[in-house]
Amino acid sequence: MKILVTGAAGFIGFFVAKSLVNKGHEVVGLDNINDYYDVNLKYARLNELGIQREGAQAFNQLTESTTHSAFSFIRLGLEDREHLPKLFTAQKFDVVCNLAAQAGVRYSLENPEAYVDSNVVGFLNILECCRNYKIKHLVYASSSSVYGLNEKIPFETTDAVDHPVSLYAATKKSNELMAHSYSHLYGFKTTGLRFFTVYGPWGRPDMAMFLFTDAIVNDKPIKVFNNGKLERDFTYIDDITEGVVRIIQKPVTEQLKEKGDFKIYNIGNSKSVKLMDFITAIEESLDTVAKKDMYPMQPGDVEKTWANVDDLIADYDYRPNTPIKEGVQQFVEWYKAFYKS
């Protein structure tokens, strides 16, 4: 298949694009390479995919020769309503995997406009292109943050998600609603994936795994929110990637057709890990005890996440299962090699 992967210079997008190429698909990666975090890490990911920094061209700089390989890359923002349709016209995608978004819960308190531009306006533009260019299947990233203040554990996709506690979560909930309406109105398949606390090599510098490791290595205290009384369903990047790729590759079976063109899955490790146990795993991998500064609960945060993945097991025979200690060790080894620490 010919597949568009948006957010291809990002953490999850990089791994999904790499896996799809390895499975023989033709992948066009798209990313605006914004400066929310260090762009050098984004370009390093692209380099792993065979794209040199000077080759990360904007859409209007492309030539025919740059878009006919197993992986090609285009620098473009989803909110660009002029050039995005031109990309769809030129490339004739079979499937779209939308992983591009303005990420981060806490940053949404400081810069809300970025979330509306990328996550709402950008997603609408993706939906319009899928409708107008007859895309068979749109797979898109949602988030466990949509569960907000839900108290029933574990979280199920059938739960009401009407109480988001951050603008980021609200934009992801809006994506699901928008996808539902487009599937209903125009009859193309949309599949939303609620990711649960993804971690692993090449991870984002604003995420706990990276922040904790970086602070410990540099002999700085780590910030522990809610005095450590947090639990997360930490999910290793390889498990997330496998789930996304299975859903992209699997044809729409009669079983799934009966469930309609709109579907949502949780992708999580089906286990809630205490934050302090997560920190302990990092300390053991680094053979160093962290200096800990305790902080109160932060706005937009939730105390606990935990995924029910029964639908994923039933429809795709898949369940993420990487143990936390193994995943943490893999990240620490990557961090040491990449930053030569």
Description:
With 341 residues, this protein is an alpha/beta fold. It has one domain (2-199, 235-269, 306-321): Rossmann fold, CATH 3.40.50. It has helices at residues 11-22, 39-48, 83-91, 107-110, 112-132, 167-186, 208-217, 237-249, 254-258, 275-286, 310-316, 324-339, and strands spanning 2-6, 26-31, 71-75, 95-98, 137-143, 189-195, 198-199, 222-224, 231-232, 235-236, 262-267, 273-274, 292-294. The strands form four sheets. Strands 3-2-1-4-5-6-11 form a seven-stranded parallel beta sheet, sandwiched between helices. Strands 7-10 form a two-stranded parallel sheet. Helix 6 (167-186) links the parallel strand 5 and strand 6. Helix 1 (11-22) crosses helix 8 (237-249). Residues 3-268 form the NAD-dependent epimerase/dehydratase domain. Keywords: NAD. This is UDP-glucuronate 4-epimerase.
